[in-house]
Structures are given as C-alpha cells and as structure tokens.
Specification:
Layout: E1 4-9, H1 13-22, E2 27-29, H2 35-40, E3 47-51, E4 61-63, E5 69-71, H3 77-82, H4 84-89, H5 91-97, H6 103-108, H7 111-116, H8 125-130, E6 134-139, E7 142-147, E8 152-154, E9 157-158, E10 165-171, H9 173-176, E11 180-186, E12 197-205, E13 212-220, E14 227-228, H10 230-236, H11 243-256, H12 267-288
Parallel strand pairs: 1-3, 2-3
Antiparallel strand pairs: 4-5, 5-10, 6-7, 6-10, 8-9, 11-12, 12-13, 13-14
Helix pairs in contact: 10-11, 11-12
C-alpha cells in the first residue's frame, strides 16, 4: 500500500513545470525505484506526486551538432548501457549503470533520478563528474545550465531550485574524444548492492602512448557527495606511464577524499579502497587507451 496524497500526471514538460509551480512541495516521480520504496516504508507518507514517466520528450540519447552527447533524464539504465552512442564514445558510463540493482531496477530506474536524489553512492555520478557533465535545469522562467560538479550541495541535497526539473544531461565532445575509462564498484556483494566505494577514471594519452595527456578521476562514497580528485589529476598530467604515476594518482586521491565510517565499512578501509581502486582503474583505462605501465 502506498500512502500518498495526490498523484498528478504531467502530459508535457510545460505541464509538469506548471504543476510544480502550483504544488512546490510535490515530489517528481520518474521511474519510482526510490520514491515508491520510501512511500512503502512510510518515510514519505502523505506526499503529493507529479509523475513525468510518460513524457517521452524527456527520454533518449542523441548527439548534437557540436558533438555533445545529450542524455535525457528519463532514459533508463538499460537503455544507456545498450545505446550505440554510449557504447562507442562513453562505454564506461554504460558499465557503471549496469552495476545498479538487478535487471528490473535497471529497466525502470532513470539516470535523472539517480543523480537528483543526491546520494554519494549513485553509480552514474562519479563517471558523469569525471566526464565534466553539464545539467539542463528547466523552469517556467527558462533554462539554467549548471556544471554537474556544482550540483551536489550535501548528502541528499542538490541545487534544484523551486519550480525546476532536470531536463538534460550533456557530455561535451572535448571531454570524451580520444578518451578511455573504467569504473570499479566495490560492494559487500557482487550484485544487488549499494557501493561501499566507487571509482571512475578516464584518460587521454599522448600520441606516442607513453605519457598522460589528461586524467580524470572521481569517487562515490569517499565524501558526503560524489567527488573529483583535483590533486590526483594534477599529479598525472604529462606524466610517463610508470609505477610512479600510479603512486601519484593514488596519493593525490587520498589527499582529496574524506570518507566516513558506517556499518558498511570503516573510514580506514574506505581510504584503502580509494588508493587501491584508483590504481586499478587507472591501469585499465591506460590499457584501453593503448598504453602500458612500464617498470
């Protein structure tokens, strides 16, 4: 039994925005894999809901004229994993969301919901941050463009202003071109579990495949929000592909993260995971880019 007050069914994005303006306290219902569970547990009892699930204009993936990849927020995890553009240009994003829940959750769950709930364990979040994703936030007053790096304000809190709905996720061509990535999720179980720690790395090598041209690295559950490691990225820039590079990446990551202890893992264990997963994800990314760690 779901204890909610009123369910409003949006017929268009404009209608959804009008409903949100009229009922600012109402929750946006997309796939429902998070909200319906909380309703069932009576954590959101008595809520008003605005369903946007039938809005096909908020579903799908395409490439824009400038090469930017646009992902609409109602796109399911399964559709992201299987889409030709993702497979060709950002396969690591498909690999990341393919580790969420089971097939039923991946069929109904949406990437927009995954990042709008603001949790640090969201499997798509670290990869989107590592690829400099940009968000399109729409309201009746217009469209606001916000780097995803600025979206998370705290645990479970995001920069969605009253009356706004996420309507697009963009990944610039400059962020994915000639770039290869790898995502590692460490969890207590190999499937159907929330990440104890997640690490997403992508690299761009120099033409001779001997140095790092650019490295991006981001973590989930290593801080109150998904976090990029600026120090690790700075340490790697221009570096030769050797063991010292791996040490600099892992040590740089340790300098930026701030994990906490929970029933899933201690702070000390998460710090160990940060160091180890940074090394492993960097090695795989380099190998996918055609390089090899020497020494």
């Amino acid at each position: 039994m779901y204890d909610f007050n009123t369910l409003y069914e949006a017929t268009s994005v404009e209608h959804a925005l009008q409903l949100k303006k009229e009922h600012p306290e109402a929750l946006i219902l997309a796939g429902g894999s998070d909200i319906l569970i909380q309703l069932r547990e009576e954590k959101l009892a008595g809520s008003n809901l605005i369903s946007i699930y039938r809005l096909d204009e908020l579903r799908g993936i395409c490439m824009e004229d400038d090469g930017t990849i646009l992902i609409r927020p109602l796109t399911s995890f399964t559709d992201i994993t299987m889409h030709p553009l993702i497979k060709k240009h950002i396969p690591v994003l498909g690999e990341a969301v393919d580790q969420i829940g089971g097939p039923q959750i991946r069929n109904i769950g949406t990437i927009g919901g995954n990042i709008c709930n603001g949790v640090t364990s969201a499997d798509s979040a670290s990869t989107l941050k590592a690829y400099d994703a940009v968000l399109e936030l729409s309201s009746l007053e217009g469209v606001r463009i916000l780097p995803y790096a600025e979206f998370n304000l705290g645990p479970g809190k995001v920069d969605l202003r009253p009356g706004e709905i996420l309507t697009g996720i963009r990944i610039p061509k400059s962020s994915y071109e000639h770039t290869y990535g790898h995502y590692i999720k460490y969890a207590m179980r190999r499937a159907m579990d929330i990440a104890t720690l997640g690490c997403s790395v992508n690299v761009r090598l120099t033409e001779d495949k001997k140095h790092i041209s650019r490295l991006r690295i981001a973590f989930g559950v290593a801080a109150p929000t998904p976090i990029r490691s600026a120090q690790a990225e700075k340490n790697a820039e221009g570096h030769l592909l050797d063991e010292e590079l791996l040490d600099l990446v892992s040590q740089g990551a340790l300098a930026d993260v701030m994990p906490r202890s929970s029933w899933r893992a201690s702070k000390e264990f998460r710090l160990h995971l940060v160091e180890e997963l940074a090394r492993r994800a960097t090695i795989v990314s380099i190998e996918q880019a055609g390089g090899k760690i020497n020494g």
